Amino acid sequence: MITTSGLTKDYRFHRQSPGLGGAVKSLFHRTHETRRALDGLDLIIEPGEFVGLLGRNGAGKTTTLKLLSGLLRPSSGTVSVLGHQPWRRNFDFLRRIAVVLGQKSMLWWDVSAMDSYLVHRAMYDLDRATFDRSVAELAELLSVSDLLTIPVRKLSLGERMKCELIGALLHQPDVLFLDEPTIGLDVLSTAVIRDFLREVNRQRGTTIILTSHNMDDVEALCERVLLVDHGRLGFDGSLAELIKSTRPAKRLTLTYASPPGPPTALPSDVTMIENEGPIRRLEADRSKITEVLSVAPSWGELVDVEVAEADLDEVMRTVLSGGLR
Ligand SMILES: Nc1ncnc2c1ncn2[C@@H]1O[C@H](COP(=O)(O)OP(=O)(O)OP(=O)(O)O)[C@@H](O)[C@H]1O
């Protein structure tokens, strides 16, 4: 459904010296520079997948989305989405995709979301009954049915994002590209939007490609993550695999009825990270967990055991600072 091979994007730009003098000078003399944002990206995405694009700021995630959705033309390499070269912006292609870029609205500011949807309806030639049903269903799922006739500029950030998503899905696209859909939203709106996207992916089979710095979004939604690193693919697999390859250690929290005795027979490569009161927190490679659990009851009266993966934000800090194994 989506394939790229050696996909490369160079941006050409000019630097301007600061101040009025710099601005005037740049009118007459411009030196151009090139920045390589994507550097030979190869990927294949199958229909119905929910994929998260991860990477540090400036890694090339938005550029990837823009190339896949046809907003940019590649400098070299190939890209095919639904059998089309996106940058040609063929109508059949545009009818089958939708793009929601956090910082760019598809809704007109001064009119209601419904007015923008009606323009959409005309553009995509949607019949009235299907249109009405779709708007009602989507608005209900996102709890914004009573907000569609208010000028968009009067809506909050979260309400606007929900209205954006409705507009993007009215023509029932096969692929949805989303850039940071929950940025700046409160936990409630974030949860509603996550449930909605999960539903759209499952019920309609819509392929969704999402960029997000919110690891909770990625954990909740994406069964596959692609790590973009300096314009290349740094990792391709599940979030669980990414965690495993980055922080193989698991966290064990042992709670005792009262402060336990010394941790005798603790395997040598297990680290005690908290040793106070009745709680012992340890970090152990997953292969050592059973060994720890077999000696832990001898330290005291063990009342609770919790085994968890390393904290997601910690994992991402390791990944983004180049610590992927
Ligand atoms: N129009 C442009 N002109 C010049 N350079 C650009 C342009 N757009 C992006 N870049 C550069 O290309 C690189 C990749 O940018 P991109 O926006 O794809 O990164 P990103 O991974 O989406 O980052 P972020 O997480 O900060 O949104 C960055 O170094 C950025 O400065």
Tag the structure with descriptive keywords.
six-stranded mixed sheet, Rossmann fold, alpha/beta, 13 strands, four-stranded antiparallel sheet, ATP hydrolysis activity, 34% helix, 325 residues, ATP binding, 29% strand, ATP-binding, ABC_transporter_ATP-binding, binds adenosine-5'-triphosphate, ABC-2 type transport system ATP-binding protein
What does this structure look like?
It comes from Microlunatus parietis. It is a single chain. The protein has 325 residues and is α/β, with parallel strands linked by helices. The chain folds into two domains: 2-8 and 39-243, Rossmann fold (3-Layer(aba) Sandwich), CATH 3.40.50.300; 249-308. Helix content is 34%, strand content 29%. It contains eleven helices and 13 strands. It has helices at residues 19-28, 61-68, 91-96, 113-124, 128-141, 157-169, 187-204, 215-221, 239-246, 289-295, 312-320, and strands at 2-14, 32-45, 50-54, 76-81, 97-101, 175-179, 207-211, 224-229, 232-237, 249-256, 271-276, 279-285, 302-308. A six-stranded mixed β-sheet has the order 5-6-7-3-8-9, sandwiched between helices. Strands 11-12-10-13 form a four-stranded antiparallel β-sheet, with no helix packed on it. Strands 2-1-4 form a three-stranded antiparallel β-sheet, covered by helices on one side. It binds adenosine-5'-triphosphate. The site of adenosine-5'-triphosphate (ATP) has 12 residues, from strand 1, strand 2 and helix 2.
